[in-house]
Specification:
Structural class: alpha/beta
Order of helices and strands: EHEHEHEHEHEEHH
Shape: globular
Number of helices: 7
Helix content: 25-40%
Strand order of the largest sheet: 3-2-1-4-5-6-7
Length: 251
C-alpha cells in the first residue's frame, strides 16, 4: 500500500491497535464525532486488542467495531491481516499496543502504520550496538518509559524536557522515523506517576493533531538537530533503562 492521497471527498479509514484501557482510542474516536476536530476526516473502522481489556468495552460503547486476537501474534500476522481484509483501513495507529507487530503487517501498510510513545525518541542517533540512543526499545513503554527518562536525568545530572512521540512502525521497537512530538517540561519533584498523569492528555492532543496532518497529507519525518543523548552517556542510558524495566516490568 502506497502513502494515500486524501481529498475532502474521502475520509481516512483508521484501525486502532491497543492492549489496555483505551484512553487514547476513546479520545480519537470522540474527536471523530460531529463537531469534533476529526469529523469528516478520520473514520475509525475497527479497534483491535491482543487481550481482553477495558478498551474493547469502551470501543463497543462508542459504536466502533471491535476484534480481539490471541497472543502471541503469529509471525505471519495472519489473524491481523484477516481483520484488515474485512475492514480495509488506510492507516493503522498503535495506541498502547503491547505486541510486536509482524513484518507482514508493517509491509502491508508501509509508511502508514504509526505508534504512540510517551518519551523522547531519536532514531538517527545510534549507539555502539547500532541501536538508537533514546528512551525507547524493548520493555520501554508505559511507566517504564517515564522512569527511564527520570532515572537518566538523575544519573547524568542533566534535566531536560521529555516528549510525547509518534513514530512510524518498523521491525524493531521504536526505531522508525519520528513524525510528531510534543515537549513536556519536567517539574521539580516529578515522579513517574505525576509525569504519567500530566503526559496522557498531551498524548491525546498530539494524536488528534497528527491525524489531522495525515488527512491533509502533511506527515513528515522530524530529525533532531542535536542528539538528546551524548555518546559518552550511552552506558548511563542503558543503566537508566535497566532500572526502569526492573521497577516497571509490565510498563
Amino acid at each position: 500500500m502506497r502513502s494515500i492521497q486524501v481529498t475532502s471527498k474521502n475520509m481516512v479509514r483508521l484501525a486502532i491497535l491497543m492492549s489496555g484501557g483505551g484512553t487514547t482510542m476513546e479520545s480519537i474516536v470522540r474527536a471523530c464525532d460531529i463537531d469534533g476536530p476529526l469529523f469528516g476526516k478520520i473514520l475509525p473502522v475497527v479497534v483491535i486488542s491482543d487481550r481482553a481489556c477495558g478498551g474493547l468495552a469502551k470501543a463497543k460503547k462508542l459504536g466502533v467495531p471491535t476484534a480481539m486476537v490471541t497472543r502471541p501474534i503469529s509471525s505471519d500476522g495472519k489473524e491481523l491481516l484477516e481483520i484488515f481484509d474485512t475492514f480495509y483501513p488506510d492507516v493503522v495507529s498503535q495506541n498502547g499496543w503491547l505486541s510486536k507487530t509482524p513484518l507482514t503487517v508493517i509491509r502491508k501498510f508501509e509508511r502508514n502504520i504509526y505508534n504512540q510513545h510517551p518519551a523522547p525518541l531519536d532514531p538517527e542517533n545510534k549507539g555502539s550496538d547500532g541501536k538508537s540512543l533514546n528512551f525507547g526499545g524493548k520493555g520501554i513503554f508505559g511507566k517504564a518509559a517515564h522512569a527511564s527518562v527520570l532515572e537518566f536525568q538523575r544519573l547524568s545530572g542533566r534535566v531536560f524536557p521529555t516528549e510525547a512521540s509518534i513514530h512510524r512502525v518498523t521491525e524493531q521497537f521504536d526505531e522508525g522515523e519520528v513524525v510528531a512530538r510534543r515537549v513536556v517540561n519536567i517539574i521539580l519533584g516529578d515522579t513517574v506517576e505525576s509525569l504519567s498523569r500530566r503526559m496522557l492528555p498531551i498524548e491525546h492532543d498530539l494524536q488528534i493533531e497528527f491525524l489531522k496532518n495525515v488527512y491533509d497529507g502533511r506527515v513528515k519525518a522530524l530529525v533532531r538537530k542535536n542528539p538528546l543523548i551524548r555518546a559518552s552517556e550511552e552506558q548511563l542510558l542503558e543503566k537508566a533503562k535497566k532500572i526502569a524495566t526492573t521497577l516497571y516490568p509490565h510498563g
